[in-house]
Amino acid sequence: MNPPSLFSPLKVGPYELKHRVVMAPLTRLRAARPSLAPRPLNAEYYAQRATPGGLLIAEASPVVATGFGNPGVPGIYSEAQVAGWREVVNAVHAKGGLIFLQLWHVGRVSHSSFQPGGALPVAPSAVAISPEFRCLTADGKVVDYETPRALETHEIPQMIDAYRQGAKNALAAGFDGVEIHGANGYLIEQFLQSRSNLRTDQYGGSIENRVRFLMEVTQAVTEVWGANRVGVRLSPYGIANGSGEADPMPLYSHAITSLDKLGLAYLHFIEPRASGTGRADVDWKDVPSAMVLYRPMWSGVLVTAGNFTGDSAQRALAEGHADAIAFGRYFISNPDLPRRLQHGHKLTPYNRATFYGGEEKGYTDYPVHDELEQA
Ligand SMILES: Cc1cc2nc3c(=O)[nH]c(=O)nc-3n(C[C@H](O)[C@H](O)[C@H](O)COP(=O)(O)O)c2cc1C
């Protein structure tokens, strides 16, 4: 049998992807305000990137009002947000595409100015992100991160219920599945990692205890969706937002082998050679490869992301390290990315200045290859 290519089909849960060029979840800070509901511009953006049988993972969307740390992020907890997302999903489906929603809670990567009632952000423990990382307030000031409020043990089931409700809302909006955001230093990763989790209850201490929150969230979400329409994203070697486990292997081996038993749609990594949140252009060499190290522990579909080009993506598939490759920044600047990769067309470079916030510029105005040819 020939090794898989970016353009061979792939079964993901109940779906048959027609190619393996996945759009990575990308926060773009362009939701309607104050509703934080997706609007027609967002539907246009996703529809531009949809292809028949291609998988898009929509941007991280908080499941509850305490889950925000940035302005203009779309939520998935109000009726208006569900209605807005439904329009996005319909636009993607009209082009034959598939779309999952990434479920999010930022935990301590926030500021009280984003929180209901101006309260402190919540986290597993009252441990602030180190001052070398800067926090942007709702009115645009750059400050130190605040020390978050540690969630009480009795609040944790409520938080899990928020993920469950977010999953139900995503189902009501018509999504094809959901991805649980367990990466990049946000709430679930704060529970996973020893630097942000100093708890002494059943959610802290041992690896098994630190993995418990991830497992309970995943359990709740799979009860809504069925395991085969749920993905989980992890960044074992990431350092985004003050994260990073000194010795990731025991922690992530336990998490991944536990998740593997559930029959999920896929596991999704962020490779450490890219900046987890795309805020810097880096290509760290000589770093561990999440897909290479953890693939042997994962029996299902493995998606990975991080500084891939068409060639390196093809190589990762051919060498059996991953089953599909998610592209972030190049999907921003190349709405027709799968087609360009298939035909070896040149890629349009991305403009970092328009990643976060704004309107059409740098969002829906990137040309497709044919328009460039005609220009
Ligand atoms: C503008 C921007 C926003 C991002 N937002 C998210 C997000 O909402 N959720 C997430 O898991 N990763 C997010 N990421 C990380 C990307 O999904 C991806 O893993 C990363 O950009 C590496 O892939 P790339 O090198 O192809 O861009 C973001 C990255 C960028 C550049």
Portion of residues within helices: 25-40%
What is the H/E string? EEEHEHEEEEEHEHHEHEHEHEHHH
Task: Please provide the count of β strands.
Answer: 14
Provide mean pLDDT, rounded: 95
Task: Kindly report the name of the CATH homologous superfamily.
Answer: Aldolase class I
Q: What fold name stands as the CATH topology?
A: TIM Barrel
The radius of gyration is 19 Å
Number of domains: 1
Keywords: Oxidoreductase
Family: Belongs to the NADH:flavin oxidoreductase/NADH oxidase family.
Pfam families: Oxidored_FMN (PF00724)
Domain NADH:flavin oxidoreductase/NADH oxidase N-terminal: 5-346
How is this structure best described in words?
With 375 residues, the chain is of the alpha/beta class. It has a single domain (10-374), classed as Alpha-Beta Barrel (TIM Barrel), CATH 3.20.20. 30% of the residues lie in helices and 15% in strands. The protein contains 11 helices and 14 strands. The protein has helices at 40-49, 79-94, 156-172, 187-192, 207-225, 248-260, 290-294, 310-318, 329-333, 337-343, 369-374, and strands spanning 10-12, 15-17, 21-23, 55-62, 98-104, 122-123, 135-136, 142-143, 149-150, 177-182, 230-234, 266-270, 302-305, 324-327. The strands form 4 sheets. Strands 3-14-13-12-11-10-5-4 form an 8-stranded parallel β-sheet. Strands 1-2 form a two-stranded antiparallel sheet. It has a two-stranded parallel ribbon with strand order 6-9. Strand 4, helix 2 (79-94) and strand 5 form a beta-alpha-beta unit. Helix 1 (40-49) runs parallel beside helix 2 (79-94), helix 3 (156-172) runs parallel beside helix 5 (207-225) and helix 5 packs parallel to helix 6 (248-260). The chain is globular. The mean pLDDT is 95. The chain binds flavin mononucleotide (FMN). The site of flavin mononucleotide has 25 residues, from strand 4 and helix 9. This is N-ethylmaleimide reductase. Its cofactor is FMN. It comes from Bradyrhizobium ivorense. Its EC number is 1.-.-.-. GO terms for molecular function: FMN binding; oxidoreductase activity, acting on the CH-CH group of donors, NAD or NADP as acceptor.
